[in-house]
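Reply to dn_fold:

You asked what the input looked like. This is it:
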Amino acid sequence: MTEEFIVVTPHDALEFNDVYRNTTGSAGYLACNNIFNRVVLNEWNEINAIPDLATHWECLDGARRWRFHLNQAARWHDGVPVTAHDVVYTHTHAKEMGYTGGRFMRDVEQIVEVNKHTVDYHLSKPNSGFLVLLGNFIFTHILPAHLFEGTDWATNPHNLKPVGSGPFRFAEWIPGDRIVMEAVKDHWGPQPEIDRLILKIVPDREECVRMVARGEAHYFPQDTLTKDRLHLLDGATANIEVMKDPGPGMALLDFNHRDPLWQDLRVRQALAHAVNREEIATLADPGVSQAWPHYLLGSTEWAFNPDAKAPDHDVERAKALLAEAGVADDLAGRTLTLYYLELFDGHRPLAAMIAEQLAAVGITTTVEGLSSPDWAAKVGREHAFDLVIVGGALTPDPEITSPKYASDGDGNFAGHNNPDVDAAYQAARSVTTLAERGAHYRRLQEVWARDTEWVPLLWYGTYFARSADFFGWSDQVAYTVPWWHWGRIRRVAGHPAN
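and this is what came back:
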């Protein structure tokens, strides 16, 4: 009997090459977590890196050079051995071309093939947080050089028919319907125990939840189940486990710092004073999510600065600052754009609430949720926005925020350019103990708060319903696999298939 594991998701794939361009949360993103491998892994609950293609590694030259020793048994799905050349080619080309996979290679000067199974990453400056950059995100996975080298990644046919090294091989994609992956029975790593991994595309988020409740699917991705959809699980006929936990990141309000309007500290402070977290708290769920005024999550105790907080809600002070900056009249005759990424459904009510709070101080906005491709174009490339509500992981190491907020960060879509922020990041990279690094990250939060670089809004929660008939989820195997990886999933003994 064929053992199938079904994940239902509202977002179809665009392709299967997140190193080229990333569509976080899409079916392609979920599939890539299972088709490909990274050099090392970092899941958001675990600061220590876990082996993936690399079996072990060394931090050399005061964290200016990192050496990785690759698993010599690793094979691509077409039988070709995985080698150091694949790693060197993938990340060097992504960095040179400005693709998503190069986003976390900012400090990388050169990637060197030491021998067939050993790779050195040479950095321009020490970076003790480099492992978390290399292992925390799917767009650092490794591609087969023998199928990509010398081609245009934009048109390479293997974007649509991927060949990876992970525990599942691509079988078929029927757009708008499903993506099917099959277990690699002779896999070089841990042997998958399910035969077929199916991503079922169902655009209606509520129906995704109902399908798990009825036992027609076993899981769905983040932001499918939200607090207002929990009732859909009432009377569930399937054997499911519901998880409600504080998440790994926050929702925040950011400015287009390239616009002179937002380069005035008083204007940024005015918007921060307009934010009413007592109202935001009505969207929260005690014990799961909460309105949050700080610039890092309290769960990252070794780096958290409790004194670094956003300005308090004060409408009159906000109005006074806008008048003092001389922009009140201009803003009264102008409509600003406020975008959020439609993929993150929880940002929809938050964006509407922030728009109302800004209106109370004389700022009119149009609120729009953007698809991943539109976000990449309008926000990422064209910088055609005024304000955005964004979310993102802040754990397990604040270094993963540097691509967004360091002035030379490849993911710095908002145009942040603060020398004191850059100095704090670099100081934290140059030391090796958590105590030393934490001191510099507390300084980083102090600067963010002092200069109102962005405005923290909500420490969001995560809601999942998953089949209790299966074992091997990331949290059940000590986060040694990514959250969206199902290569360790197996049916629990005594729990027969429906």
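DSSP finds 14 helices and 18 strands in the chain.
Hope that clears it up.
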